[in-house]
Amino acid sequence: MLNEPVSNVKGIGDKLQENFTEIGINTVEDLLFYFPNRYDIYEIKPLSELIHDDKVTIEGEVIGEPTLTFFGKKKSRLVVTLQVEHVVVKAVMFNRPFAKKQLQHGDTVTVTGKWNQHRLQITVSNYKKGQANSQAPIQPVYPQKGNVKNQQLKKIIRQAFLQYKNDIKEILPTSYLQEYKLPKRNEALFQMHFPTNNQTLKHARRRITYEEFLLFQLKMQWLRKRNREATQGNSQLFNQVNVDEFIKELPFTLTRAQLRSLKEILIDMRSSFHMNRLLQGDVGSGKTAVAAICLYASITAGKQGALMVPTEILAEQHYQSLKSLFTDRANVVLLTGSVKGKKRKEILELIKTNKADIIIGTHALIQEEVVFNNLGMAIVDEQHRFGVKQRRTLRDKGLNPDVLFMTATPIPRTLAITAFGDMDVSQIDEMPSGRKEVQTYWVKDNMLNRVLQFIQKEVDQGYQAYVICPLIEESDKLDIQNAVDLHQQLVSYFEPDIHVGLMHGRLHTTEKDEVMNKYANNELQVLVSTTVVEVGVNVPNATIMVIYDAERFGLSQLHQLRGRVGRGQVQSYCILLADPKSDVGKERMRIMTETTNGFELSEQDLQLRGPGDFFGKKQSGLPEFRVGDMVHDYRALETARNDAQEIIYANLLNNDKSYGNLKEMLNEEIEKGVTLD
Ligand code: ADP
Ligand code: MG
Q1: Which residues of the chain have pLDDT under 70?
Q2: Same domain, 574 and 665
Q3: 626, 208 Cβ separation under 8 angstroms
Q4: Ligand 1 centroid – CA 425 distance (Å)
Q5: With CB atoms counted within 10 Å of each terminal CB, which end of the chain scores lower, N or C?
Q6: CA 172, CA 202: separation in Å to the nearest integer?
Q7: For residue 517, how far is its CA from the centre of ligand 1 (angstroms)?
Q8: Quick one: 519 and 640 in the same domain?
């Protein structure tokens, strides 16, 4: 059985077992699924096809006696002269003096190493007496972890296949193998470790990729179905008349996309299952307005609503705008880390006794001391900034609220179907009318003076500007210093006519509020800031966004920053100051100037950055696949998703015998713990 302890494989002693445990190999199955992270290809090519600086393998005959030179006590250099295809090639080996005796005139030897085309020389990393093994030109290289050596792994895995080959059960119905032309499970596994050739390796990868995608998507779809079927959820019987009145009183008419999303959300709220929905929409598309209506609906159903946002600035801003939207319709409270002492006690009490209707806050909301009385609706804004755990805690609070996640980072389809495969998705894919596209320019640093003149001109017309300093870590002192220095510089340029403010993460909340309020009231015309203003900040009178060292930001982040302007009726501008050295950097700048569509940008960003970086490290909640790559194997991912949907919704796992093994596997995986919620 594959779940036997790995020590049942012959040749594994106590020591090796310990080493295996250290790198996470406990069972035979773990071992078989411990895949190489690359392969060395020992394919002998003619000299004429070798490429300078590549790792190559050649085969030749030793001519004469190798020369050995020592330098220092332990260091040596051995030069072996080889004849390869009638050409004389030098093979250089460092610190292997013993090889001199092994390699005699006339011996055939196969060497692998870095090729120097100009000197006809190879710096040897590996050599073997005799001819190359044409049987196994592709050699697995396992991740170097712990104390397990590559050779050891190869040997043990080979042995494991001898003992357990028949225990590797096929889990896919035969029809899938035929349709997708996939090798059987045991064959694919073997080929992953010991590929016969490139072709068989490719098919093995395809098979394993599909399998892991399918299992993952099955879990997601299963969760989704289970979630929907959990009938003891909260039906929120809101008052449609009140909600309609509220909508009518808004200072604008909702867009069609807003109305459609709203309807989808309200249907979920009224139904008995717990809503688990993602609301996607570009910056400024009006998600917050939709959120406000939903929160209001919740109140009319007699419940509390919570809105969790990633920063204090944003919490404060939402608090102000929701308060003025709701007027006396609701008691809105703010709970952030900086609400302290008596005030905090008061607010906690209001929440607990159901006297607070709407609670807005940062992650302070999910701390233990916060006891909701009757939480019906939880909205998480800019959800990608929260860890999976945090999202879940909020969900677990109160009486299993309906949960709505909002994001302005348009998520590429490929990530959406992995990270949010178990969610329903609403999309606001339309901007409120009258918005002008932000014009984006990319200029070199030496154009700074013209940029400043441009700011001057806009400010003279009554508008405002942001100037963003790069910030990699919010706690990075150096970056704060950047902002402080830049602020000084702009103060001496603009003051006294134009007032320049400074904003960064290290400021006290009260200071932040003060600066933000002044900026919102146009007492400050220029705001120098780190990326703390990245999400959600709304000052419609600002028309210029200048971003310093723009090459240090990812596309999505640049897009977020750009979204701070263009929020009113007038033409706005985004100016990227950048001197990118790399092609990727230049490409980014070019894309920014050409694309204002967030979804398009996000697809391109994903291509440039890869899925791991997309949401930011660790926080992503993205699964780690062993073989499959969400970006490159996108088609497989989509196929797996569709197949999983069909399997779950047609209940094939229970209704069709050929899915028996798959069902068993899925059950095991689910028992191991479903971590995505
Ligand atoms: P998001 O949260 O998606 O970034 P907001 O809800 O903050 O967007 O909306 C951005 C701005 O547009 C706000 O000033 C808001 O009042 C306004 N707004 C929202 N919906 C509409 C609409 N349908 N028509 C006009 N303006 C709108
Ligand atoms: Mg928003």
Answers
A1: 132-136, 230-234, 383-399, 413-414, 419, 471-481, 534-536, 610-623, 673-677
A2: no
A3: yes
A4: 20
A5: N
A6: 19
A7: 19
A8: no
SS3 425: strand
Q: What is the pTM of this model?
A: 0.65
- Tell me: do 458 and 393 sit in the same domain: no
Q: Do residues 579 and 543 both lie within one domain?
A: yes
Exposed e or buried b for every residue in 108-136, given b needs 16+ CB within 10 A? ebbbbbebbeeeebbebeebeeeebeeee
Structural domain range at position 74: 43-129
Question: For the chain, what is the domain count?
Answer: 4
Give yes or no for residue 281 CB within 6 A of ligand 1: yes
Alpha-helical (H) ranges within 271-311 are 287-300
Report, in this order, helix, strand and coil percent for the chain, each rounded to 5.
45, 20, 35
CB atoms within 10 A of CB 219: 21
- Among candidates 192, 211, 194, which has minimal Cα distance to 35? 192
Exposure of 556 by Cβ count < 10 A (0-12 exposed, 13-18 middle, 19+ buried)? Answer: buried
357 and 408 belong to one structural domain? yes
C-beta 280 within 6 A of ligand 1: no
- Which amino acid, 68? L
Could you tell me if the CB of 287 is within 6 A of ligand 1?
yes
CATH number, domain with residue 74: 2.40.50.140
- What size, in residues, is the chain? 677
Q: What is the pLDDT of residue 384?
A: 58
The answer to whether residue 623 is domain-embedded is no
What is the three-state SS of 555-575? HHHHHHHHCCCCCCCCCCEEE
The pLDDT score that the predictor gives to residue 391 is 55
- Is the residue at 14 inside a domain? no
375/445 same-domain check: no
d(CA 192, CA 189) in angstroms, rounded, equals 5
Closest C-alpha among 556, 631, 547 to residue 588: 556
- Phi, psi (degrees; rounded to nearest 5) at 116: -110, 110
HSE, side-chain direction, 13 A CA sphere, residue 159: 14
Residues with CB under 5 A from ligand 2 (ion): 288, 536
* Long-range Cβ pairs for the range 493-501 (8 Å, 24+): 493/452, 494/452, 494/455, 494/456, 494/525, 494/526, 498/456, 498/459, 498/525, 498/526, 499/523, 499/524, 499/525, 499/526, 500/524, 500/525, 500/526, 500/527, 500/528, 501/526, 501/527, 501/528
254 lines ligand 1 (CB under 6 A): yes
Same domain for 400 and 267, yes or no, is yes
Give the CATH number of the domain where residue 273 resides.
Answer: 3.40.50.300
Ligand 1 atom closest to Cα of residue 291: 6
Please indicate, yes or no, whether residues 258 and 407 belong to a single structural domain of this protein. Answer: yes
